[in-house]
């Protein structure tokens, strides 16, 4: 390249030396012409620019016309819009198409089919390590299968018992539509409460008029609380009216050195219209809330009410009914228009015994009744430990301010037997001849034979 460049320079120098002045003049002319041509080009460029401007102007002027063409396009877009509906319609078909796949649910079958292959495939591995896998696999299934059964079976038992024992709710849903939530009985009365639909709060059954609870504490028809101790292993008239008589059988323990023996109501005997009802707590060594210890006998025949809450038994010959308030140890005894008696069988707990020095003995938890009476048709002549408090003329002579006002008069209320209506204050019109009838005590319950009484209305029970 360098050599070629040198030769080019020499040629140029030679030409420059030989070239005449005339050529220089020609060059000047050519330059002028070139300039002219440049000018012409410039003019052309200017014209071109002008044309461009003119085009722009034309475009501006012509813009109105173009719009029409452009507006038409919109329609096309509208045309696509119809398609959308079509698209929307397409979904249904799409939906319809899925069904086919569903019916074709071959997938499931496919899944089901795999298992077979799987078993078939495992065999080989099993075969490879036959002894270990086989023994191990069988045991697990057996163990796994056995646990499930116990689990389901065990939960049911504990689950139902708590709710039935101390959960209450308002059963009158039509009268109290807002009181629907269940409630738990207060600690004071974990076993014996009911829902007061008016206040929508649980109320201890033993805190209302007509209550006979604990050792034994009464709440009279007048609302005042008092104690009536009676005497253990004796019977007393709780209420006696012309058409209704109720005795209570008292049990107790012996506390050496104490001023008196503590007592409880173990059973009641209710007589009305020639019928007799016994409700008692069976003698029990070790208490279990879930084991029913109530004994009920109507006209000499044991009343069997299935151990399920709300199961109801109706007497064949009277408007008497017995309804379980819980699976065990709670019933509502009802005689339409006459009374409702809420009965709960409870034990003396070790804590009760310790706190109150009851002297609880081994082998007897002193099972007894907590009772809540409600009466609907008493006469004003009614009497008895509890009955007298429903008289309009009843004047409470007890010191109600005392911590434990005690009603005396054991002699006035003492009866010769559980179904005897011979207490001095007795008002029961049909009772006199009933004195001869034997007592259906708890101990006799399992081995008694009963038959119609001589007068046709009572019942004679013999061992
Ligand atoms: C329910 O409550 C209403 C309002 O207190 C009352 O009128 C009605 O008799 C009650 N029904 C029952 C079955 O107790």
Automatic annotation (TrEMBL):
* Pfam families listed in its UniProt record: Root_cap
Please indicate which superkingdom the organism of origin belongs to.
Eukaryota
Sorted keywords for this record are: Signal
Biased-composition ranges for Basic and acidic residues? Answer: 26-60
Give the range the annotation lists for the signal sequence: 1-24
Q: Where is this region: Disordered?
A: 20-163
Stretches of Pro residues bias are at: 63-163
Name it.
Uncharacterized protein
| High-level lineage | Eukaryota, Viridiplantae, Streptophyta, Embryophyta, Tracheophyta
């Amino acid at each position: 390249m360098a050599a070629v460049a040198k030769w080019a320079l020499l040629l140029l120098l030679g030409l420059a030396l030989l070239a005449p002045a005339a050529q220089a003049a020609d060059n000047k002319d050519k330059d002028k012409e070139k300039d002219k041509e440049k000018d012409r080009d410039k003019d052309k460029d200017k014209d071109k620019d002008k044309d461009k401007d003119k085009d722009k102007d034309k475009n501006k002027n012509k813009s109105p016309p173009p719009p029409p063409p452009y507006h038409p396009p919109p329609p096309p877009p509208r045309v696509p819009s119809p398609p959308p509906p079509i698209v929307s319609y397409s979904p249904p078909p799409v939906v319809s198409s899925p069904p086919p796949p569903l019916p074709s649910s071959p997938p499931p079958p496919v899944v089901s089919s795999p298992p077979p292959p799987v078993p078939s495939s495992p065999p080989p591995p099993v075969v490879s390590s036959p002894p270990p896998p086989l023994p191990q696999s069988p045991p697990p299934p057996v163990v796994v299968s056995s646990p499930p059964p116990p689990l389901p079976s065990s939960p049911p038992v504990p689950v139902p018992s708590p709710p039935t024992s101390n959960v209450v709710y308002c059963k009158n849903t039509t009268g109290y539509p807002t009181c629907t939530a269940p409630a738990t009985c207060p600690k004071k009365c974990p076993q014996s409460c009911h829902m007061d639909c008016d206040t929508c709060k649980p109320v201890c059954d033993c805190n209302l008029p007509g209550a006979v609870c604990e050792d034994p504490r009464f709440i009279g028809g007048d609302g005042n609380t008092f104690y009536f101790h009676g005497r253990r292993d004796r019977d007393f008239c709780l209420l006696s009216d012309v058409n209704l008589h109720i005795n209570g059988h008292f049990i107790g323990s012996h506390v050496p050195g104490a001023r008196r023996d503590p007592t409880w109501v173990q059973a009641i005997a209710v007589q009305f219209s020639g019928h007799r009802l016994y409700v008692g707590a069976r003698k029990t060594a070790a208490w279990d809330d879930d084991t029913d210890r109530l004994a009920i006998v109507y006209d000499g025949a044991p009343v069997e009410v299935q151990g399920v809450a709300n199961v109801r038994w109706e007497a064949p010959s009277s408007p008497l009914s017995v309804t379980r308030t819980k699976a065990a140890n709670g019933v509502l005894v009802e005689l339409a228009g006459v009374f409702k008696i809420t009965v709960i069988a409870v034990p003396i707990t070790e804590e009760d015994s310790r706190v109150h020095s009851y002297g609880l003995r081994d082998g007897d938890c002193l099972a007894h009744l907590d009772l809540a009476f409600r009466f609907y048709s008493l006469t004003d002549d009614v009497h008895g430990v509890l009955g007298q408090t429903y008289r309009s003329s009843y004047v409470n002579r007890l010191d109600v301010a005392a911590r434990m006002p005690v009603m005396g008069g054991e002699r006035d209320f003492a009866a010769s037997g559980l179904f005897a209506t011979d207490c001095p204050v007795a008002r029961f019109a049909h009772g006199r001849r009933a004195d001869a009838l034997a007592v259906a005590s708890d101990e006799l319950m399992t081995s008694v034979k009963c038959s119609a009484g001589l007068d046709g209305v009572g019942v004679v029970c013999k061992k």
